[in-house]
Amino acid sequence: MTNILCIGAGYVGGSTMPVFASHCPEDRFVIVDINPARIAAWQSDQLPIYEPGLEEIVQQTRGKNLFFSTEVNRHIAEADIIFVSVNTPTKTFGHGAGRAADLQFWEKTARQIVENSTSSKIVVEKSTLPVRTAEAMERILNSNGKGLFFDVLSNPEFLAEGTAIRDMQNPDRVLVGGRETPSGRKAVEKLVELYARWVPRERIITTNLWSSELSKLVANAFLAQRISSINSISAVCEKTEADVSEVANAIGRDARIGSRFLQASVGFGGSCFKKDILNLVYLCEHYGLPEVARYWEQVVLMNEYQEARFASNMVASMFNTVAGKRIALFGAAFKAHTSDTRESPALAVCRALLEERAEIVITDPYALDNACEDLKDLGGRITYEIDPYAAAKNAHAIAILTEWPQYAQLDYERIYQSMTKPAFLFDGRNLLNHKKLYELGFNVYAIGKPALTRLVNQGIVAA
Ligand code: UDX
Ligand code: UDX
After folding, report:
1. Tens digit of pLDDT for each residue in 76-129?
2. CB atoms near residue 63 (< 10 Å)
3. Measured from the CA of 340, which atom of ligand 2 is nearest?
4. Count of domains forming the chain
5. How far apart, in whole angstroms, are the C-alpha atoms of residue 196 and residue 236?
6. Which numbered ligand comes closest to the C-alpha of 404?
7. What angle do CA 332, 273, 407 make, to 5 degrees?
């Protein structure tokens, strides 16, 4: 039996360890966290994060070979392998503020491991970290004065929210980076064996430590870059009457390009893309590579441009003023099937419209609490409404900001009837049937498509 510990019961630790536990019934998994409320939630029927399939796996394994605890020190002492998945947010202070990763929790955890260990261990970086963090980790861990030796591995996480369990059960690949020493190779093999219980060996890639650390940042940078690339083309489409969906389909059918992650949108959000790209930018600057830094920074700048462009298009289309106009934002989450609003483009659009003194009402099936928390600095200037029909009532415009499938099923005739005319619909996710909406009477603006506008108010169709 191997004793496996995970420090950090957040999204990453909380969705990976239960899957491990279900595939390795003879091993023992403990997840610890400094936050007692979080651990209590993991021990209850109301788990702290929502992921399809997670609850079932936790129910199967909890109390058998999966345990949650706040006793960090005791479990460090017992562990053979320690995964570290504490958070590494962007620094908000000092050198590298706004770009570099804040490693204070990380270093504190390394020191805690040293203090409480009485045997040699394998320590696995699960959090996303700057390249060469493992070196610092090794130095802290191996200056222990107790004769203990720690192997440090990098095993980055590629889970996407909403499909985390599926991604972990059936990954495209698993990446394990380690030192090319006999001890390092042995440690890599140990972790590979754990994954090999359910992942085919050919999908488990082993590399040196630095390649592994860097690959995590690069994977997210490339994914985000595809979105910024297609979004930049959406601006060209809107000027030329090309249709971005047709362009994406035409280029995506080339197997060398591939069709995924070419959905033009109001922008990408989520806790990882921006943070990891800025981390890469900082790394490039640190190593004296300003041209490389600027290249990747542009992916983030293009995303900010897309969000700002969407909001200013709204204002321009609505006769250059939205002051005092009720505007319903459909969706606050950064993507569908999550309540997560971190870096959500919906919030950026909301702030831009408030600057123009619009009257904003936000609706979302799951993310209203988080949106309210994120926008609390704006006080009472926003209304939150769970029912999209109520949100749209008397509104001048609707903006689709999250691709919730339920928004495609609404009765838009009823919505149109309840709105102020002329009624505008801005589809930031290209989710709806634009022609049908136009026929109902809406002025329709989508991303990267010719606008369907009416020359005359209220239902008189301009051919
Ligand atoms: C986090 C990072 O955001 C991501 O970059 C990294 O790849 C993995 O860790 P996530 O699991 O989503 O991802 O973060 P979060 O939900 O904030 O969870 C981190 C947990 O670590 C929190 O529950 C926090 O209480 C805990 N923690 C933090 C500790 O247990 N000890 C610490 O010293 C600091
Ligand atoms: C991402 C990576 O996919 C995952 O591998 C990594 O471990 C963490 O970061 P996540 O942030 O959960 O996962 O979401 P993802 O599905 O990648 O979407 C990110 C953002 O891009 C969302 O706002 C989404 O709406 C947007 N997006 C995605 C587009 O605008 N167009 C697309 O074609 C795809």
Report:
1. 999 999 999 998 888 889 888 888 888 899 999 999 999 999 999 999 999 888
2. 11
3. 12
4. 2
5. 47
6. 2
7. 25
Residues belonging to the active site: 272
Query: What tens digit of pLDDT does each residue of 185-234 get?
Result: 999 999 999 999 999 999 999 999 999 999 999 999 999 999 999 999 99
Pocket of ligand 2, beta carbon within 6 A? 157-161, 220, 223, 227, 261-263, 265, 268-270, 272-273, 334-335
Edge to edge, the sheet with strand 326-330 lists 382-384, 359-363, 326-330, 397-400, 424-427, 443-446
Domain of 368? Answer: 206-463
Q: Residue 118 is part of a domain; what is its CATH number?
A: 3.40.50.720
- Are both 89 and 74 inside the same structural domain? yes
Report yes or no: 42 and 14 within 8 Å, Cβ to Cβ.
Answer: yes
Q: What is the pLDDT of residue 249?
A: 98
Same domain for 182 and 210: no
323 and 192 fall within a common domain: no
Which stretches within 176-208 are classed as H helix? 182-195
Residue 382 DSSP one-character state: E
Whether residue 152 sits in one domain with residue 56:
yes
Q: Whose CA is nearest to atom 16 of ligand 1?
A: 10
The last residue of one of the domains, among 146, 176, 199, is 199
Asked if omega into 290 is within 30° of 0 (cis), the reply is no
389 and 284 together in one domain: yes
Which ligand minimizes its atom distance to the CA of 155?
1
Atom of ligand 2 nearest to the CA of 265: 30
Which of 158, 227, 339, 400 has most ligand 2 atoms within 8 Å of its beta carbon, as the pocket-test mutant? 227
Q: Is 8 in the pocket of ligand 1 (CB under 6 A)?
A: yes
